């Protein structure tokens, strides 16, 4: 029973830690950088959103799997 509770706590911590350090300014800087390379505003925003989604999807599997073993 205790093992299950520890895993739940670690899952919650991993979910919370993913983007705590990313600031709004960093996201805007990235968007402007991508836009400055020739993409439209909408395409640049889609690139940022896609990158964030991929980071979230794969960051949890990389950083949290080590706790599950």
Tell me briefly what this model is.
It contains 3 helices and no strands. It is mainly α and 69 residues long. 0% of the residues are buried.
Mean pLDDT: 75
Please write the string of helix (H) and strand (E) elements: HHH
User: Which segments are poorly predicted (pLDDT under 50) over 5 or more consecutive residues?
Assistant: none
Helical run tally: 3
Question: Shape, please?
Answer: flat
Radius of gyration: 16 Å
Describe the structure.
With 69 residues, the chain is an all-alpha fold. It has one domain (2-68). Helices cover 81% and strands 0% of the residues. The protein has helices at 2-17, 24-35, 41-68. Helix 1 (2-17) packs antiparallel against helix 3 (41-68) and helix 2 (24-35) packs across helix 3 (41-68). The protein is flat.
Feature tags:
69 residues, 0% strand, mainly alpha
Summarize the SSE layout with pairings.
Elements: H1 2-17, H2 24-35, H3 41-68
Helix pairs in contact: 1-3, 2-3
């Amino acid at each position: 029973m205790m093992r299950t509770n520890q895993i739940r706590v670690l899952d919650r911590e991993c979910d919370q830690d993913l983007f705590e350090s990313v600031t709004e300014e960093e996201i805007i800087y990235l968007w402007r950088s991508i836009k400055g390379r020739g993409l439209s505003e909408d395409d640049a925003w889609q690139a940022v959103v896609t990158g964030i989604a991929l980071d979230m999807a794969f960051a949890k599997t990389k950083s949290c799997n080590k706790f599950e073993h």
